[in-house]
Amino acid sequence: MAEGFLMEVCVDSVQSAVNAERGGAGRLELCSSLLEGGLTPSLGLLQVVKQSVKIPVYVMIRPRGGDFLYSDQEVEVMRKDIELMKSHGADGLVLGALTEDGRVDTELCTDLLAAARPLPVTFHRAFDMVHDPEVALETLVSLGFERVLTSGCDSSALEGLPLIKRIIDQAKGRIAVMPGGGITERNLQRILEGSGAQEFHCSARSSKDSAMKFRNPCVTMGAAFSAPEYSIKVADVSKVCSLNAIATYTL
């Protein structure tokens, strides 16, 4: 991997983790349910991924999909998951929480960061749902987050590029600002050049057809708009390699 930048790939399977490393990823964000933006993975997945790759594995701590306003019971789940992921080899954690008025929940985040120590922690794309990103960034710096993952409070990192550039300038190296959301081979160079970011986050996935020969087209395992049952999304080695090469050229 080139000096001076780091590519993080979000993965939800062992195969994706292996492919991401083979393609040149410098770090993994390990999740389940990427269709929902990433939820806490199983301990089994963490353990097998750790056996299968050598690069750092940051584990998502997110008990459900939807918003980032958590009940007392959900907070207890998050605390337990932090404890378990730490004890089973996580290299870092990824989490976030907001108040009902769209601010960083400083009290809860302080509590979760204390539970996570000494592991480094990334504040995830809950940042993209805040009321005032500049104020939120200062809060994350004061709390001690290592980095923040953001699409610039827009539908993708390309659309949010002006804000990403602004908060990278504001951060002045006090916290890493990592663009993520819709990053592809087509837009990565523009995002890196336009933001000045030294890290970026992507999934680099392709669809892989199921090996099932017998198929029942009448049944789906999820909601009406769920993913196809006979298509699997996995990190694509060639896509990861291409993104790596673009970043190397750009930075």
Automatic annotation (TrEMBL):
Keywords: Copper, Cytoplasm, Metal-binding, Nucleus. GO terms for molecular function: copper ion binding. The keyword Oxidoreductase does not apply. Pfam families: CutC (PF03932). SUPFAM superfamilies: CutC-like (SSF110395). It is found in: Cytoplasm; Nucleus. Coiled coil: none annotated. It comes from the Eukaryota. The keyword Nuclease does not apply. InterPro entries: CutC-like, CutC-like_dom_sf. Homotetramer. Belongs to the CutC family. This is Copper homeostasis protein cutC homolog. The gene is cutc.
